[in-house]
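Morning, I've got a small favour to ask if you have a moment. You're getting the sequence in one-letter code plus the fold written as tokens. Thanks so much in advance, here it is:

===
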Amino acid sequence: MQRTTSYIMAFLLVFSVSAFSSASSLEKTPASPYSVLEELGTKLFSRIAANQQEIQKFPALMQVIVKEELMPSIDYRYASYRILGKHLRNTSKEQRAMFVSSMHDYLARTYATALMQYKNQQVIFEPEKSFEGKKIVAVKMQIVDMNKPTINVVFKMRKNKKSGEWKAFDMVVEGISLLSSKKAELSKRIAKQGVEQVALELASIAK
């Protein structure tokens, strides 16, 4: 059960955040986190669908697609700082940059691995709601798969102060926050081994 839940969470993380992919390619300032999700959510998966045969032959292509289509819309710096938590204040500028870079590559690999399971699932988006004055918005989405229970997802988007873009930094499934889970896991390792050592381990996994 735990393995199944972990797989679903990993897949849903990729599925949900990918819905924000390349929002800036059409608008410098997306009007709404809801419209970004609904209008641009299929771009990444369209590219995957168009390259299915190539991906099966060369799995590394999936990570290339993820880095090009998905990662620009992930607020991995903010997520990295949230994961560091109390350890952030004790890090140097160089250590923070190292950790953020490692998290970027680690997440890209994680997403690419999970996306190998993509099978054209149906997505139902939450209707537009007022978000005026909000910097962080929780958006709901349902993933419908034939002969399987519908999965309800809540993911969190954050508005960039400078660009006005909305990017994903966390998602919650079955009441579990992936960001909080990763923070709990890495915080203990950072306390014992230090930020640089954990960053090196993440970078090694991402290769």
Observations:
- Residues 2-206 form a domain with the Nuclear Transport Factor 2; Chain: A, fold (CATH 3.10.450.710).
- The chain has one domain: 2-206.
- The beta strands are 122-125, 136-144, 151-159, 166-173, 176-177.
- DSSP finds nine helices and five strands in the chain.
